[in-house]
Specification:
It contains 3 helices and no strands. The protein is mainly α. The chain folds into 2 domains: 30 residues, no CATH class; 44 residues. The radius of gyration is 29 Å and the shape is elongated.
Length: 89
């Protein structure tokens, strides 16, 4: 009988029982899990209001620039296509 193994047995998900054990550890003490999540949330460095506004304005500006670029490109290609079609007739 041939024994079949996962290509990487050291990977946690390769053992069928590993995901169940991890889930059981979380389910044993949900309060501890919630406390750890809360501790990690406090470690996050949140952007200031000014940084958020700057980021938003940059996204809006780039969207406007991109739309103008594609509008111009579309008009140039339309002009060239119309010119090509007039020459071929």
């Amino acid at each position: 009988m041939v024994e079949r193994r996962s290509p990487k047995p050291e990977v946690g998900g390769s053992i069928p029982s590993a995901p169940a054990k991890k889930l059981m550890n979380i389910m044993k003490n949900p309060l501890k899990f919630i406390q750890e999540v809360k501790q990690e949330a406090f470690k996050v460095t949140w952007p200031t209001g000014k940084e958020t506004m700057q980021g938003t304005l940059m996204v809006v500006a780039m969207a406007i620039i991109a739309s103008l670029f594609f509008l111009l490109l579309d008009q140039v290609l339309k002009f060239l296509l119309e010119l090509l079609l007039k020459v071929s007739m």
